[in-house]
Amino acid sequence: MSSFPIDRLVFGPADVDLTRSPLAGKLGVATHVLGAFNPALTRLDNGNLLMVVRIAEALDEPVRDGAIHAIRWTEQGYTLDAWPLDQVDPADPRKFTLNGGPWRIMALTSLSWLLPVELSPDGLTVVAIHYDRAIAPQGSWQCYGVEDARISKVDGRWLMTTCSVSPERHCTTLYASEDGLDWRFVDVILDHQNKDMVIFEGRIGDTLWAQTRPLGDLYFAYPPGSEWRAGPSINLATSPDALHWKPCIHPGLRPESGTVATARIGGGTPPIRTDRGWLALWHGVEPKEIVGIYRTYWSLLDLEEPWRIISHGEGPLLEARPELLAGLEDRIYLRDVVFSTGIAERDESFIVASGECDLACRITHIPKSAFGV
Length: 373
Fold this sequence. Notes:
One of its GO terms (molecular function) is glycosyltransferase activity. With 373 residues, the chain is mostly beta strands. The protein has strands at residues 7-11, 31-43, 49-59, 63-64, 67-74, 77-84, 88-89, 95-98, 105-108, 110-119, 126-129, 145-154, 157-165, 170-177, 184-190, 194-199, 208-214, 235-239, 246-247, 264-267, 272-273, 278-286, 293-301, 309-312, 338-346, 349-356, 360-367. Strands 20, 21, 22, 23 and 24 form a five-stranded antiparallel sheet that branches. The model has no long low-confidence stretch (mean pLDDT 96).
């Protein structure tokens, strides 16, 4: 892993004013910011950068009266659901699993909404926090929250994919904006458990491309001795209009059999065009305890045939840095996680936005030379 001179946290839980939250005054119980993390990133027309930050808002006392509680949006407002403690497994701090069913069913310990945070052009100073433009659940398809935005600017318009969570489906939803600040909900564009959808920042010919990551509980084995490991991989899809997506017949990025560091992989930042190829930053997960170790890796993809890999880093680009969380020790509930979700250009560097340990927003300046571009 390389070290970079500009690599710091710029926004965290203490920077969020919950009196201006979409949930404020609507639950009748106290909440706190579990994390302000996994920020989308884009450059606005005024030259500033914009992060769209995932705010995970959690109950101060989720366990009471013999039950654990979850926050849920309804058409009548926000409500609390109570699950008897003897019916759940609360081992993961982010969620709890319901016991006894024929398949895995879970609920979340927080509800996520999205907060636009405007930064200086170098991404290091907060200029404005746009609570009036916050994005919160607005339908049954996202009654448990809106998570992990990614922003791409294509044809002069900003497109933002998000993960929407509900019992109906765990789906990808699309938002659009004409200025990068005011967002409108467009539609559900990928259905159940297709996470980490990132739209390429630019067309190939007349076609939009995206990386997707379908999930499932069953994968077919590669043959013995294969260079690939069966499991979640980064697939490709195409669209004429950002609404209707067709899977690409060619495989995309796949986990390698020779290492456990990328036993599970998924999309990170929207692929950005360089002279040599599309630069894609993605995450690899090494199994460890409940959550695993999340690291950021990179690949350069062919400009015309993005399933072809031109080059890639030999090791992780970014890893979690415990020293960045000094002063936040009382808030830490995960470790060993960096999750890169946004990228923008500035002079001879790329500015990369990441979630650090599901807690805060990290900005890293990485020279373009690190990628050979």
